[in-house]
Amino acid sequence: MKLYVGIDLALRGPHRAAVVDDRGTVVLPERRLRTDMRNLDALLEQLWQRFPEAEVQVVAEPTGTVWIPIARHCLRRGCRFALVAPQKVHDLRRFYRRHAKTDPLDALTLARMPLVDPEALFTSEVLDVRWLALRRGVKKEAKLARLVAEIKQSICAKVDLAVPGLAALVGDPASRLARALYGRSLDPQQVLAMGPEAFRDLVAGARRRPVSEGWFRRLWACYEAAAAFWGPGDLEAQDLTEDVAEDYAILDTLIAQLRQVRQRNLALYRALDPEGHVQSLPGVGKVLAPALLAGLPDPHRFPDSKAFRAYTGPIPRVDQSGIRRAKGTRSTKAGPAWLRRALYLAAEVARRQDPQLAQIYQRCLLEKGHHHSHAVCVVAVHLADRLYAVRRDGRPYVLRDAHGTPLDRQTARRLAQAYTVPDTVRRARRNREGQLGENVRVG
To answer: Where is the Transposase IS110-like N-terminal domain (predicted)?
Structure first.
């Protein structure tokens, strides 16, 4: 006999548990539990007293991290433990009660999930503390990277307030030149008073190399244009400089923390993937390898690469009926955002290193009318297939040409660069999707 225990986990209040047999009949009334071994043991002992030979399976949603201690204890007691995606529970609950959502109903829905949709259940290898640490680390890395980008955008916005166009001309706000200019040269009147030669020496000293004449003329023109906007006393340059200095202090703290997190993630990655199979993928280095590994700790959770594709999220929704099939549907975005980010960043580089992915990218722009970001998402989907294959087979990735012949990295990069896209096509894709310039031939 099999018994299924559905536990609707709560982050603050008590959990709710429901128990059904292998026919879906409720065998115990709904009860409340705490994240306490005594509560769990009392429930399990009650089940085994009534049904001594029963095989017990506990089903729950991955709510926060509260499911982890419960899962570990259930496994120690000899129970099977499975997780189910919240979307699946939502769909089945609406089938039972369309206009109701209660904790007891959620628990009953979870208990019956193995009978209704057993393929929706999955186990998790992240019960290993190293996998837990890696998953936390890659989520923190993605969050810190986003905060770094936001602070840089804030700095550029304040710089453009004082000297429009300066941020775009200087580039990365974290560079030596940007720090030098933004720290003492946000007052256009003061810069013009220095004169071009003195300012050129200041810029050359910050760059630690000579300044080209054309670039410096554009830089000086930015300050001349800004001086026309801001008259003497109109711009509180000192306050703006202090504000930017505070942003730089925050930026330096975030960058230092980001560096530490990445080092820790890399150490965990090397312990969990000592042969470097994930890092053998094109476009995957020391930063993205931990994220991709954390995104697929157990390849057997997914029956095939198509299921993993759907989990990662950068694939379009399917809308097909009869002979009609909708185009341009929105992507599912089903998986974690940090995994989609890692796949997208890796795909952006991989299309320049792998001839097969480069061909896919080229076909998306030339034949299918996609714009750049859409094409990179398509490459990311194919990269997810390759990630699934190397994790499932336990082997490194082999670069191949369009005919499947193995290649070394140098040859693969050279072949990938041959799949070019004309600038006219890129401009057409940016301006209006699906429209080509008049003089562009395709196919």
So the answer is: 5-162
Give Cα 158 distance to the centre of its chain: 28
pLDDT above 90 coverage of the chain, percent: 54
List helix spans (H) across 22-128.
37-50, 67-76, 86-96, 103-116
361: number of CA atoms within 13 Å, CB side? 28
**Other CB atoms within 10 Å distance of the CB of residue 312:** 27
At the top level of CATH, the class of 2-123 is: alpha beta
Model pTM score? 0.81
Mean pLDDT of 395-402: 95
Element spanning 121, H or E = strand 121-122
Return the residue matching tokens 């220095």: 194
Query: What is the pLDDT at residue 323?
Result: 62
Asked if residues 355 and 419 have their Cβ atoms less than 8 Å apart, the reply is: yes
d(CA 347, CA 341): 10
**What does residue 51 show for φ and ψ, rounded to 5 degrees?**
-130, 80
Give the three-class secondary structure for 123: coil
What is the reported pLDDT for 332?
63
Sheet of 15-21: strand order equals: 26-33, 15-21, 2-8, 55-60, 80-84, 121-122
198's CB contacts (< 8 A; 6+ apart) are none
